[in-house]
From TrEMBL:
UniProt keyword annotation of Transcription present: no
Lineage, broadest ranks: Bacteria, Bacillati, Actinomycetota, Actinomycetes, Propionibacteriales
Ranges where the ABC transporter domain occurs: 12-229
Stated name of the protein: ABC transporter ATP-binding protein
Organism: Nocardioides renjunii
Basic and acidic residues composition-biased segments: 244-260
PROSITE patterns for the chain: ABC_TRANSPORTER_1, ABC_TRANSPORTER_2
Entry keywords, A to Z: ATP-binding, Cell membrane, Membrane, Nucleotide-binding, Translocase, Transport
Length: 260
């Protein structure tokens, strides 16, 4: 476990987690993980290494999957997926506040929409929004519940590079304001370094690598320390760093390249 999380009661505590879908072998094989309150953890790993399985276990979405181990998460957990999962027959504010049983739900919905840059779009239908705007709405829907833990499974994976950069800025800002603990599954090594306090690499169903990101201030891909971290993480993932074009996201889902 990471030493920096020791002083605080963790927001997430996972012990000896095993999960398997069939007799062929485990997907998670005795995984331990702590996440401190307000800590932003990015989760990398090769395709099929069990990232989504871990996230779904933390979200309580893995009923029916064989497994053992202990999971402790806070009471209020929100999940964001790659697709926004907005209900097409509900207006934006109703999507954002769906299931929120408080008297001022509509006001809270408006505030959350404004926070993600969708002020005044309460009555819009999901199909009237761009992909990036739909993901903004999805973030608003998560944050309106004031989660202590935000679980995000490749939330920006389907967005173009420019929108993705804007979403990074937005997510960092939202996390500074709301301070949830975050577990972000991503294939994008640069995204992990830009956003996270800590990056972990999953392999063989356990945490293989666990590194704190100690980059000061604005995190620039042009910074040599950024490049060193990228190279280290890619090496942990078994991928060579051929990052010759600054600004190009480095994705770690290149199973064939890693094997060659
Ligand atoms: N519902 C399921 N039934 C059977 N096998 C599954 C199921 N869900 C996942 N698996 C298997 O478990 C393994 C881990 O899957 P998981 O989706 O957790 O990986 P991942 O690291 O998130 O992969 P990716 O990066 O490709 O999204 C894979 O081999 C996958 O085929």
């Amino acid at each position: 476990m990471a030493s920096h999380a020791r002083e605080l009661t963790p927001a997430v505590r996972v012990r000896n987690l095993h999960r398997s879908f069939n007799e062929a072998g485990g997907v998670l094989n005795g995984l331990d993980l702590d996440i401190a309150p307000g800590e932003f953890v990015a989760l990398l790993g090769r395709s099929g290494s069990g990232k989504s399985t871990l996230l779904r276990s933390l979200a309580g979405l893995d009923r029916g999957v064989a497994g053992t181990g202990r999971i402790e998460v806070p009471e209020k957990v929100s999940v964001v997926f790659q697709d926004s999962r907005l209900l097409p027959w509900k207006r934006l504010v109703d999507n954002v506040t769906l299931g929120l049983r408080v008297p001022d739900a509509a006001e809270r919905g408006s505030v959350a929409l404004a926070e993600v840059g969708l002020a005044g779009r309460e009555t819009a239908w999901p199909h009237e929004l761009s992909g990036g705007e739909q993901q903004r709405a999805s973030l608003a829907r998560s944050l309106v519940r004031e989660p202590q833990l935000l679980l995000a499974d490749e939330p920006f994976g389907a967005l173009d590079a420019l929108t993705r950069i804007r979403m990074h800025t937005l997510l960092r800002k939202l996390c500074e304001v709301h301070q949830p603990a975050v577990l972000l599954v991503t294939h994008d090594v640069d995204e992990a370094i830009v956003l996270a306090d800590r990056v972990i690499v999953l392999d063989d169903g356990v945490v293989r690598h666990d590194a704190r990101i100690d980059l000061d201030g604005r995190r620039s891909q042009a910074d040599p320390a950024f490049a060193r971290l990228r190279a280290q993480l890619l090496s942990e993932l078994g991928v060579e760093d051929d990052h010759d074009a600054p600004g190009r996201p480095v994705r770690a889902d290149l199973g064939e390249r890693a094997a060659s």
